[in-house]
Fold each of these.
Amino acid sequence: MSSPLLEVRAAGFAYRQEPVLNDISLAIGEGEFIGVIGPNGSGKSTLLKVLGGYLPVQRGSALFKAEPIRRCPKKILARSIAWVPQEHSMAFPFHVLEIVMMGRHPYLSPLRFETEEDHRAAEKALALTGTSALAGRRFDAISGGEKQRVLMAGAIAQETAILLLDEPTAALDLKYQMEILSILKHLNEEEHKTLVVALHDLHLASRFCRRLILLDRGAIAKDGPPAEVLTPEVLEPVYGVRVRLQDDGEGGVHITPEAPCTL
Amino acid sequence: MHSLTLPAMSRKRYLATLGKFLLFLAIVLTFSPLIGPTRIDLLKALAGTGAFADNVDANILFVARLPRELLAAVTGAALAVAGCVFQALLRNDLAAPITLGVASGAAFGAVLAIALGGTFSVFGFSAVTLGAFFGAVSAVSLVLGLSRARHGEMPTAFMLLAGVTVNFFFAALVMLVHYLSDFVQSYRIVRWLMGGLDITDYQTVLSICPAVFLGIGALMYFARDLNLISAGASTAMSRGVDVARVQKLSLIAASLITGAVVAVSGPIGFVGLVVPHIVRLMVGSDQRLLIPASMLFGAAFLVLCDTVARTVIAPTEIPVGVITSTLGGPFFLWLLTRQR
């Protein structure tokens, strides 16, 4: 592995007094497909925002290609790292194409309209996420699964090497969950993009990600391949529940919670 | 290949849409001054024969109606653009110069300047204009300071509540200053507070133009950044927008243009709330189009309101603020019920 794309060293972050991230160190190399897992409130979103440079670390450092990320010019950074937010509320009735086109912002100077090239990038992103037919629809009039794919299309249109996704499958039906992760798999394997995905669903994480980072109250409980992270010994103290693991026959594991455990 | 026609933004669509708004404004500007309690003959007014002072038609048109109409246009344009930008920044369509306390902050500054009898001027700006401007900026600073935007996320509900509270606070201070002032000042204050476009001249209109058009220009420069901010702070950051900087500069610019027009026209309510909504229904949500279209439509809107104010119970003229608020109040309530 060459020098890491993204790196945090002994990073700490707090919104107010209570620390959300505590002494986190990790490095992310080119082409990785990383799942960030952990219980609610364990700091998954915050870690992604720190990795993208959207939140400042208060202790330690966050680096992009060995440079402090907060000192990189924002537009340059936006050509390398894209972000897919979890929430999808738009204050105003934008159309789907307008939202995808916003991904081209880092390539446009002020007062400029999108060029042919920008249109091509947007069309490609729409096609890749299967949302071409929605282009002229209003964003607030499409379903939750469609919204999530449109937001992904916006990030793909940004044409970055790295994508950070905050729970892209949360609140989606099984079919949409599969669709989203298949798109991510394609991006990683065919387009060689580096992906860091916060995930709730451990089964999906085990099937698609090649490396898992398990967070527990703002600290890394375990960082490694799914087979090492998804074991009862590692999961039970973090989630506070007894689990049973079962091979799903497709390279993933089903994790069944059995009974709360006190430790 | 799937064809992406609408609603992609292009220079062609941009110019065609703005052309229509410009045409509408031109028609309104041409015909409004001809309407009024006194019928005027355009041909006589424009005929260059005889002394200007003897030409009654020309006097009514060029001295009484035209400067007033231009002031209405500039004021409407500025308030509409400010409303547009406040709505994008707060990601909420109830945000406007009135609901953020900017308008009454400006009113307090102006009223204080009248009461203290400030007659000085700096760079051609009168004491009242400066008072209104600093009032507007201090109201915004107060709301911002209280809400402490963290990492680019503005707490919208809090800011609107704080804005309304600041609005009442400054309204109370206006009343206090009003109560303590003498008869002549009191009369000036009342006339000013009613939102008057009636006593004006070309000099006054020209004096606010630099601030207004500089501010609108700056906001148009940030139009695409404002699109992204209205889509969410973290999204905007990830697309390379310096969120904190754009928020700060566009708040200053929006307060500047609000302060400048409120200083001469008084607090004219609801233009900044109603106009961006109507225009959004017509051109969509892209700020690149929304800001200039709101500017043109806001200008036409206030000229029309002023024409109604001059003529509805002629020869008595109602302050234009009465017209905009009686139209805008119900509209605001309709919006509120629709939001739930």
Amino acid sequence: MKTPDVKKEKDEKKYGRRDIIKLAGLGAVAVTAAAITEKVFAEEPEASPTRWAMVIDLRKCYGCHSCSAACKSGNNVQIGNFRSWVVQVEKGQYPLAERDFLPRLCNQCENPACVRVCPTTATYKRPDGIVEIDKSICIGCRYCVNACPFGMRSFGWRRGYDKGKEDYPARRYGVADKCDFCFHRLENGMVPSCVNTCPAKARIIGNIKDKNSEVYKLIDENPTQRLLPDLGTDPHVYYIGLDWDTAEKAIEVGTRQTPTEI
Amino acid sequence: MAVPNNNDKLVKDVVRVLTVTGPRYYAAVAVLAAIAFFGLIVWINQVMKGLDVTGMSNSVAWGVYITNFVFFIGISLAGTLISAVLHITHAEWRRPITRAAEAVTVFALIFAMISILVDIGHPERFLNLFLFGPAGSPMIWDIFIVTMYLISSAFYLYLSMIPDLAIMRDVFPAKSWRGILYKILALGWEDTAEQKRKYKKAVSIIVVLIMPVAIMVHTVTAFIFGVTIRPGWHSTILGPYFVVTALFSGLAVISVALAVLRKVFKLENYLKPAHFSNLGKLLAIMSALWLYFTFAEFLTSAFAGHLDEMYVITSKLYGDFAIPFWGMIFCVAASFVVLIIKKINPIARTVIAAVFITIAVWLERFLIIVPALTQPLSEGHKGGIYHVSFSEIFITTALLAGFILCYFIFVKLFPVISILELREAREAVPTAMEKIKSYLHDEE
């Protein structure tokens, strides 16, 4: 085999192999630069007039777990997983014993740690503040499950349990799952299942940007607390009357449903 | 089989490794293939039934599979160290082991990718990583850099092999399958001066470019964990720590691989005790460095005593993970002790230490990933329990078997000892002498 005569080839063709490679390289650089410029100078999406937030008035909650049940059946959550649940924390000795209830759900953070890490953009924040999962894109790497400091995310571990029906979501295998404020209900003018079912009316949902909303007024008029505010994720679930010890313990016990003593 | 028409002893030996295959080799390949096949069945079972068959839960959402991923990524560093760093520093002893080391890199990266496929819920959607991947996700950084590293190290492995493949092409008859294979792969290499010049230039460029990529691979893999706010993961030292551990485990795996090659293919003439002695020295340095990093990591978090961090640390020191933790410390300490005993012969010394180190590093990866997930800032659901399931054990074993199997097949297809490098080694002797003389002091 002979090495081809490079010089001769160059004379014959207008562009040599090297020129083509160089051109291709330049082209690649140009395309990347264009893509980056487009991203950097892209116009900010118009701010939505809505920012959903929830207030949970713990003075009213008496721990009936209706929200857990309504959420689980309404969203067809997989066996073993929860999107919302109630933690029970027991404190003190008889006769001064008390039991605190703390309903948990996704905080729909303003700076969600889970969205930052998602490698496929399956998890994203909607303009109205709800953090949603596109289950047709999610590859199930569970990075978000590990990254959420509140432990609100679960994963579809089991396969082949339920196919779902019309207007009733299937239990999706192999993807991340979490509370999404029942946005399918919100969009149709209904409140989320847990709010709908709460017999004590302890859960209130609303648009925090609207100064006439109940949520805004409650936060305005009452001292409110949030879980792990120091992590900088800016949670949008506000509690009224949350005890510090209870909050600490609640994070620790996760989805355990049985009462925990401090 | 083809009779090589070349009287060079080196070429003869390389051809012997390629063509002379004993029954024990076939037995080993059969066993490895059986294990790998069984692992494939277990994986299919896992895909059918869901990841529920693993011991993972919503709290401990990453387990042995991610440990395997990080472990395989780790051992990929050594090939680059041997072939690039030692190349640039003109460490002459590297010459016979470059090919074997570079192959470890490529296969380790392939199996790291497979480990990810095994772990994710929807392996069929892995292309989404490339289709939708946002630039902000640390996992995308990792996928990007690992892909780049795989391509560049596979390219380097191939590039460095072209002259050898040309020799093999000339040795085997043109009509045999080997002759055809090597003819295609040798890309018309004729050993001309022009080709040699271009080849030298290409190699010297790629060995420089591959080094930052290698360092980045390990750092970015560490960042996957380091950038989260999870106690035990959220640590600034994690990036450099991973680089050190990667070197450590990579050198260990290469030592074992070389010892096996030496024994099985009777390469005593090429892989001499001096090589193992040098690898042993590097291992001893790395184990000291590793202990230093581990100490620095533990002391700073434990002394500050943040409660969340303390949960992780105490669970390792005397909690649920005490056995793997102290097992790991024992393995590293034992390897260090074995390495500094001069009485044992260097080959046995290095191989024993390397086996200890390989176990220790796997445990270390496990201890970085799992204990942090069982702790309170996270869910703590199920009280942070993680039991490794049978599926995970089988698939891990199968991945290891597959890795060794690929290596065994590679050895039979391509020259595992670089003929070109060894020929250059002879030529390099006067140059090396000149070099030593150039920095000697003048004696008047």
